[in-house]
Amino acid sequence: MRKPQGYATIIEPGMATQELDTMSCAHCNAITHIKAGERPEDMGGLCKCCMGLICAKCVEKPCTPLLKSIEAEEARAEVLRSYGF
């Protein structure tokens, strides 16, 4: 990947230390480890609506960026509070 968003070092007893680039899904914020030379299509894909990298779980789902879903939950909570719930 050309511009990874993060970096992970995985240390397990009895195993070799792994150093991997990471990216977070634009829809669900899941962290995905990227192997050297892996294409975005192999990791999940690129959402054409929000132009963000997405994980394999979110490929078939509609575009709902994380920030929009958080704002929708906050608006719902505000409405429920105004009704006294």
Structure characterization notes:
It is built from 2 helices and 5 strands, in the order βββαββα. The chain is of the alpha+beta class and 85 residues long. The protein has one domain (6-82). Strands 1-2-3 form a 3-stranded antiparallel β-sheet, with no helix packed on it. Strand 4 (44-46) and strand 5 form a beta hairpin.
How would you summarize what this structure contains?
The chain has helices at about 40-45, 65-80, and strands at about 5-10, 20-25, 30-35, 45, 55.
Key traits:
single chain; 85 residues; three-stranded antiparallel β-sheet; two-stranded antiparallel sheet
Structural class label: alpha+beta
Oligomer: single chain
Series of secondary-structure elements, N-terminal to C-terminal? EEEHEEH
Q: Which strands sit side by side, in order, in the main sheet?
A: 1-2-3
What is the percent of helical residues?
10-25%
Shape, principal axes of CA atoms: elongated
Mean pLDDT: 87
